[in-house]
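for the writeup, i need someone to sanity check this before i put it in the appendix. the sequnce is what the collaborator sent (i think, or maybe the updated version? ugh). structure was predicted straight from it, no edits. if anything looks off just tell me and ill rerun, i have time this weekend
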Amino acid sequence: MIIKSLLTTENVFNSTEELKSWIEQRNREVEVKIEQIPFNQMKMWHSEPDGSICHDSGRFFSIVGIDVKTDYGTNQHWRQPIICQPEVGYLGILTKEFDGVLYFLMQAKIEPGNVNCVQISPTLQATKSNYSRIHQGKSPNYLEYFVNAKPENIILDQLQSEQGARFLRKRNRNIIIKVDEDIEVLEDYRWMTLGQIKELMHYDNLVNMDTRTVLSGLKLSNFVSPLNDLKEMSELGRGWLLSSTTNHVHIATDVHLSWLTQLKSKYDLQVSPCPINDMPGWERNEMELVRPDSKYFKVIAVNVTISNREVASWCQPLVQPMQDGLCAFIVKKIEGVYHFLVQAKLECGNLDVLELAPTVQCLTGNVPEDPKSRPAFYDYVVNAPKERILLDALQSEEGGRFYHEQNRNLLVEADEDFPIELPERYTWMTLGQIYEFLRFNNYLNIQARSIISALSYK
């Protein structure tokens, strides 16, 4: 039923075009007002003597300063603000079978930092502070299904990390459950097939980050009946399936694990608290915490009014990037099997030093003019001919914490001349090997998961 859902792009509830129209309609109908304000006008927030920005309840999240020391890369000591949110939240999708096809109950949700206001979100998207009702608002819709889920109802249940350069060791519970009982479909929710969601991922900023991370954990080859399903897949989809199931791998999985363990042992990452008021290269004024050189990101304060949220109006800080990002995987057929070019990337907020990341992951405004100083494979990706680009879409990052942050997600098929030999921190992995690492916490970063979730099989 999951594969039928993957291969079904029209359904009895809503066509894909109707779903797009529904999102557009909700954008017109829901009142949204996001206003930048001075830090000292944020109700229910305050600044600590060291400059940290905290919620009066002591919950939700805070903006704190960290001092980072590492022997990885060229920049080995810096200070920066970062989001500290130690709570584990729910990112949950409710599913139900109709006529042999699994449907996913998705939400049209507005986050204050979204580029286009309404995006397709999981059924449940809530921090512990949200569902504990620290904000004194309504309880999130459908929460009880996830709190009371029995093991036999669970399709997927993982703890996964979020952006390591923005969050300090942040994780969320990614969970998909299947129910049999009738479910009331509330105003901002619609049933969608997996195929429809993947199709909508190919449009800019339509499917939010939380949906992408949850769906990335589904190893679809586990649900395939070859005689029935292969004939309905595209040639590329059959290529992904082979990459998910084959034993013909360029590098064995236990060698990958040893490679990553060795790199984690080789590189040091020391992260300690420091005052925001004492961060060289950063300045704070009444409106923003920012670098004078306009690099990386800044922190702003906003007053938010959204008419259909648990709380209709609130204030909060948001992290605003200074440029769009680029996240790209290079894939290459090695002995007829697709392999992904993966890098082991250190980010200051990582729980365990390094995570597996796309081939290229960078902010476009920070790329040096000197080709020798650019990220490895950057030029190959940005200069790829159109016929070798398998995916190209702008995807938003989490709008509850980031203001208008989006990454260009690319999937580029390498030509025959692309080298097999790689630098030390890079390796080739089949899709099946990637899913092996995805089964466990804190191996594959959010940027890699975002691209994996968008792979099209039809």
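The chain has a mean pLDDT of 94. The longest helix spans residues 16-29.
thx in advance!!
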